[in-house]
Amino acid sequence: MGTVVWGERPQREVLAAVLRNASYEVLPFRSTEEAVLAHVPRNVALTVTTTEAKGIERTLDLAERLTRHGYDTAPHLAARLVRDDAHLADVVARLRDAGVRSVFVIAGDAAEPAGPFPDALALLERLDAIGHPFRSVGIGGYPEGHGRIDDALIEKALELKAPHATQVITQLCFDGATTARWARAVQARGVQLPIRVGIPGPVSRQKLVRISAGLGLGQSARFLRKQQSMFWRFFLPGGYSPNRLLRQLTPGFAGSGTTLRGVHVFTFNEVEKTEAWRRDQLARLSSAEREAS
Asked: Do β-strands 167-170 and 102-106 pair in parallel, antiparallel, or remain unpaired?
């Protein structure tokens, strides 16, 4: 697989810490629980996506089960899928009773909201109003903007959401310098939340095609639009490698005053392959450290 970077010792130490504390995103498919239990250590935090096609129920169910297995699991709470205050209260009570202590709040992709929560901010404000039990509340960041929302509006929304959250997880961005510039700009506007950078794991183009085909027609189209830059990169010489992206990001993780705190790996349910890659990189970094000593 190759190593990420053979740089100086401080860089190796930073990168090893980033990989040791990586979190994973998984999709709520029938085989997900078994795959996670077989291949993902309990100290790797997880998020579980919500899709319009599969609804919020499957996300909550998987998050509950993984939490009971000992994982720190954050379900995606899609604001546009929450029907009303009673529905939200039921979701919060259900997660609390299952021991879920983390959530990731998004607007969701539904064309029309099912209730009074059209965006993530509305749901975050309501969660605060009812006194939620979650110690970690994640919100999304967009280093390359949002396909349907003006850049100024999406960044203003981040500023408004920040007081209700504990961390930011970014959407996919394939340029480390772009992510670092965006993080500095966010910090300059007063958002001091730690940022976990979303990166794709070592997933194949064929896997992405299979996933998109299983999401339902409308959801699949949105998925493909979101991932079109990723598909394009698979046709470049050498394809996509998470190693190259981590190499670009390492200076940002190591820089003084930065709010970049780690990586969140979009596994696309290739959890065995993703965990093998992470362990391989950690082993190579450890070996490089021994050789340098």
From this structure: unpaired
